[in-house]
Amino acid sequence: MNNKTVEEQASYWFACNKENISLEEKHKFRKWLDESNTHKQAYNYLIKIESLCNSLDEKYLDNLIEEAQEGAKKTKFFEYTKKYSFAATLLVLIFFSIFQGINYYSPIYESNLETNILTNQITLLDGTKLEIDAKTKLDVKLYNKQRVVTLYYGQVMFDVAKDKSRPFNIISGQTNIRVVGTAFEVKNLDKITTISVKEGIVKISKIMENDTLQTLALLSKGEKIILDEYGKILNLSTIPIEDIATWKSNYLIFDNTSVKDAIKVFSRYTNDKIKINYKFQEKQLITGQFKNSQIEKFFDSLTTLYPIVVEKKEDTISINKKQ
């Protein structure tokens, strides 16, 4: 028996129990209830919804009843309620409406993803491909009318399958990124969100306090935007396509990057704790290309450029001033 049938039966028996039903009907109800835990769960859920309805605003409840009546008349379920009192019928119709809403707004697919020092690749049910960098956490939810990813931290390259009826939204801090079908990278590192577009059009919006969206920019191929945790634009520029998500190929590219930031990037690809006991200046920069597994080569480069010594002990890498 499918969930819809169980929900309708639960609503039917709930309406019955609001009336003075016969002893025979009560036995039938008890038999139905004891048939399975699914029946009990569905019936108990209606009890909870009744409590919710009692707390609703009267005007809102009237609107809900009107909508429920219209929706239920289009189904066989409406026939179940005809012989019961008007009050019981309305209550069941409200339950029917809420059940329909729950089914509509519940995700048809959801997944919680978190990587360690290794990258990961997945393909969603809609054909969208995600390439997930090390030390990244995100949630994926696919609904009937939209697709939503919440990126808590880390880096993800998206290749979104086209579906005009279901926009694809990524939430990063107070920034909303919306597309229909395109390829782009989203970073959420140190509460800074960076979006770089490989192909297609990407709509960038700020999530306001009332959850409405304020459009900030439309990015096209080769464009890059940086925003703070509150959705404020910090920088808007262009980026070479080949420099987007180089971590997918296990390469890290630094172009006049501060040493401290470069060390922070490398720390994503090791389980070792990196302890900096040397005060690097903001103007101390590094340029170069490294494999993310070549952390020793990276530190060797630093020791030739700056008066430091790098020591590894157990699970800690220490960067100290050379004596």
Give the helices and strands, then pairings.
Layout: H1 3-16, H2 23-34, H3 37-54, H4 58-72, H5 77-80, H6 86-105, E1 109-114, E2 120-123, E3 129-132, E4 137-142, E5 147-159, E6 168-172, E7 175-179, E8 183-189, E9 192-199, E10 202-207, E11 213-219, E12 223-227, E13 233-238, E14 251-258, H7 259-266, E15 273-276, E16 285-291, H8 295-305, E17 308-313, E18 316-321
Parallel strand pairs: 5-6, 15-18
Antiparallel strand pairs: 1-4, 2-3, 3-5, 4-5, 5-8, 6-7, 7-10, 8-9, 9-12, 10-11, 12-13, 14-16, 17-18
Helix pairs in contact: 1-3, 1-6, 3-6, 4-6
Description of the molecule:
It is a single chain. The strands form three sheets. Strands 1, 2, 3, 4, 5, 6, 7, 8, 9, 10, 11, 12 and 13 form a 13-stranded mixed sheet that branches. Strands 15-18-17 form a three-stranded mixed sheet, with helices on one face. The chain has a two-stranded antiparallel sheet with strand order 14-16. Strand 10 (202-207) and strand 11 form a beta hairpin. Helices cover 32% and strands 35% of the residues. With 323 residues, the chain is α+β, with helices and mostly antiparallel strands. The chain has eight helices and 18 strands. It has helices spanning 3-16, 23-34, 37-54, 58-72, 77-80, 86-105, 259-266, 295-305; strands at residues 109-114, 120-123, 129-132, 137-142, 147-159, 168-172, 175-179, 183-189, 192-199, 202-207, 213-219, 223-227, 233-238, 251-258, 273-276, 285-291, 308-313, 316-321. It folds into three domains: 3-105, no CATH class; 109-241, Jelly Rolls; 250-321, Phage tail protein beta-alpha-beta fold (3-Layer(bab) Sandwich), CATH 3.55.50. One of its GO terms (molecular function) is sigma factor antagonist activity. The chain crosses the membrane at residues 84-105.
